[in-house]
């Protein structure tokens, strides 16, 4: 739902690296292509029509040299023989030839159009499947891979893989058909000339294999480097201010140059390798062509062959060589396509979250309808409509978790957040606070223990039902390209079940959130108010403004569970107070998990959980914890010393009195 950005760059771990490797061995080249054709699966009738049209086109083209030959013979006989010129026969042949040209044109054109549109549709579907799959991949897989590589798989590799579909389905079979039929015809017309013409075939095939073998490693390097370069540029753009601040342009520039050089080298080598094929095959064919012309001419002089037949042989041999050239060029293309098909396959065959298969709990997972009913009843909330009656209770029960099996992050964490209450998690850096929120959002399964929402294990609820109840605001607010209004309304979409009927409801939620979020003043100061465009990095807004907009978006969602992870860290104390007051008003409808380093903020929560080194060391209200004089109390005293600001005494606890947030 509204926001689920994580605030920390991914740290690859042993476990995640293993998870990122979807298969031990890369799929075989043939395997990838067969797999790709299965994915593309053009409709049978369309395939049949395209094949029939292509076959007719090829047959028409093959017949034309024979008709040319017949026309030549009629003219030669009519001009030099005793009989007068058979004009009607000549015009008939010319008419047949002209009709054939038109028919070939129509067949080739309609075949090309039908095939192109069918492939474009199939690619559209394939790209959509890859995109949808990305959302179902376990987070570990996404965290461990490079973003550039993933982007390449979704865009460039998907496109490149599908460029081989047309050649596999149509060009290659029609080229084979041309070569076979032309060879047979050549043998019928003149076995000697046919044998000479065929010399080119094995030579071209051997050349194609040798060239493709040389090109393949360069193609692989080209694709891998393109992916790394894309990732590097993306990273450079998103961190451009930091890069400038540290004067690190030369460092990133050097890395860019290095990758650019590598890409240039691999592209040049791949093109050098595959570029030699066409001229080599053409040279072989030219030699064969000259030989045919000489031998055919001698046969005509000796009267062993008519002039028309010799002409037909030469034209047929041209068709033979162009068919073979196409087949030779097909091989490197297949190589490049198969590399890309393998990459796309890797994504689509990566095992998904358990959640999308069977529940870890086996058979006791509720049906979708049950979950919906629970959501409407308020059991798992109803973020989008605010239909829930009672915010849920959340129970962390002996939760263990590790990103990397060697390094436990959470150990036996247990605490309960009462319905409609606010629990603040405090603890040192790296103690596991954000990790707790990620587990609650079902981004990772727990290694031990349970997390329950109103008594139901979230693994039983399923990922989507669990998250549908939540709104999350992190310390690094995520805004998408659009207007401020769209960014806030993202949290309050119309009811999916009745979108038309709920437009007013969504508007009302948006208005309410604007008032509650206290963003009115800020929005009024923006050039176009609510319609101010927000760029990708929201550079035109301050960090505090961005946070305020994301908090407002979360409010517009009217969630039954609200997760605030250092959500107001960039806001000034007055703005923070306003946000806290607004969040306080949500309290009766929302169960809140609040992560903060500001103890003054934590002090106002109903319950404070102190986390140290992945373990709960203290739980209680601000007053309880001060009275216990443990770690929390010591931190409060240290805060007073360092900040000069009192967090609050036991008697003045904000737990019951103040706003939360
Ligand atoms: N995606 C990840 N992969 C591997 N290790 C991670 C990942 N995210 C966090 N960690 C590690 O888990 C531990 C707990 O991190 P977490 O973000 O939960 O701490 P935190 O208490 O929220 O810290 P902070 O107060 O700095 O935000 C840290 O040691 C961190 O390095």
UniProtKB/TrEMBL annotation:
Coiled coil: none
Superkingdom per UniProt: Bacteria
Residues annotated as domain ABC transmembrane type-1: 48-336
Region annotation Disordered: where it falls in the sequence: 1-26
MF (Gene Ontology): ABC-type oligopeptide transporter activity; ATP binding; ATP hydrolysis activity
InterPro entries tied to this protein: AAA+_ATPase (IPR003593), ABC1_TM_dom (IPR011527), ABC1_TM_sf (IPR036640), ABC_transporter-like_ATP-bd (IPR003439), P-loop_NTPase (IPR027417), Type_1_exporter (IPR039421)
Name of protein: Putative ABC transporter permease/ATP-binding protein
Source organism per UniProt: Gordonia soli NBRC 108243
């Amino acid at each position: 739902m509204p926001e689920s950005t994580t605030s920390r760059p991914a740290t690859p771990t042993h476990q995640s690296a293993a998870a990122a490797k979807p298969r031990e061995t890369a799929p075989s080249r043939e395997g990838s292509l067969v797999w790709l054709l299965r994915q593309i699966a053009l409709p049978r009738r369309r395939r049949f029509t395209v094949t029939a049209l292509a076959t007719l086109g090829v047959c028409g083209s093959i017949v034309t040299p024979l008709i040319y030959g017949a026309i030549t013979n009629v003219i030669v006989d009519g001009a030099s023989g005793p009989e007068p010129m058979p004009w009607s026969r000549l015009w008939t042949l010319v008419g047949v030839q002209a009709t054939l040209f038109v028919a070939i044109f129509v067949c080739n054109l309609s075949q090309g159009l039908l095939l192109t549109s069918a492939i474009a549709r199939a690619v559209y579907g394939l790209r959509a499947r890859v995109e949808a799959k990305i959302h179902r991949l376990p987070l570990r897989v996404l965290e461990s891979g490079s973003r550039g590589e993933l982007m390449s798989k979704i865009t460039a590799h998907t496109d490149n893989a599908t460029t081989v579909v047309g050649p596999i389905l149509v060009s290659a079979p029609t080229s084979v058909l041309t070569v076979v039929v032309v060879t047979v015809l050549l043998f019928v017309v003149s076995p000697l000339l046919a044998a000479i013409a065929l010399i080119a075939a094995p030579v071209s095939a051997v050349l194609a294999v040798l060239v493709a073998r040389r090109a393949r490693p360069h193609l692989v390097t080209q694709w891998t480097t393109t992916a790394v370069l894309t990732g590097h540029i993306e990273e450079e753009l998103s961190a451009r201010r930091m890069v400038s601040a540290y004067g690190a342009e030369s460092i990133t520039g050097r890395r860019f140059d290095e990758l650019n050089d590598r890409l240039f080298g691999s592209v040049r080598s791949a093109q050098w390798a595959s570029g030699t094929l066409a001229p080599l095959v053409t040279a072989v064919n030219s030699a064969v062509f000259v030989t045919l012309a000489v031998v055919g001419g001698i046969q005509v002089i000796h009267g062993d062959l008519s002039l028309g037949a010799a002409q037909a042989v030469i034209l047929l041999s041209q068709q033979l060589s162009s068919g073979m050239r196409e087949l030779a060029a097909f091989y490197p293309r297949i190589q490049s396509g198969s590399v890309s098909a393998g990459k796309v396959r890797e994504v689509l065959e990566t095992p998904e979250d358990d959640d999308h298969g069977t529940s870890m709990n086996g058979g006791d997972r509720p049906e979708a309808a049950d979950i919906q009913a629970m959501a409407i009843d308020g059991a798992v909330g109803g973020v989008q409509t605010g239909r829930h009656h009672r915010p849920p209770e959340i129970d962390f029960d002996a939760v263990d978790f590790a990103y990397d099996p060697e390094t436990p992050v959470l150990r036996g964490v247990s605490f309960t957040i009462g319905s409609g209450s606010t629990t603040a998690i405090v603890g040192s850096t790296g103690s596991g606070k954000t990790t707790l929120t990620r587990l609650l959002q079902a981004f990772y399964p727990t290694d031990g223990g349970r997390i329950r929402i109103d008594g139901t294990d979230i693994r039983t609820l399923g990922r989507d039902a669990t998250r549908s109840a939540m709104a999350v605001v992190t310390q690094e607010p995520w805004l998408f390209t659009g207007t401020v209004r769209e960014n806030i309304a993202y949290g309050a979409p119309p009811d999916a079940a009745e979108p038309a009927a709920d437009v007013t409801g969504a508007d009302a939620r948006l208005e309410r959130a604007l008032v509650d979020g206290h963003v009115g003043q800020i929005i009024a100061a923006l050039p176009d108010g609510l319609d101010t465009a927000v760029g990708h990095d929201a550079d035109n807004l301050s960090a505090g403004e961005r946070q305020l907009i994301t908090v407002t978006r979360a409010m517009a969602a009217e969630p039954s569970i609200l997760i605030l992870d250092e959500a107001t860290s960039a806001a000034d104390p007055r703005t923070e107070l306003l946000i806290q007051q607004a969040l306080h008003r949500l309290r009766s409808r929302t169960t809140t998990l609040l992560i903060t380093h500001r103890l003054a903020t934590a002090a106002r929560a109903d319950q404070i959980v102190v986390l140290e080194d992945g373990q709960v060391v203290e739980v209680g209200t601000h007053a309880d914890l001060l009275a216990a004089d443990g770690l929390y109390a010591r931190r409060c005293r240290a805060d007073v010393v360092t900040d000069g600001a009192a967090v609050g005494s036991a008697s003045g606890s904000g737990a019951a009195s103040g706003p939360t947030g």
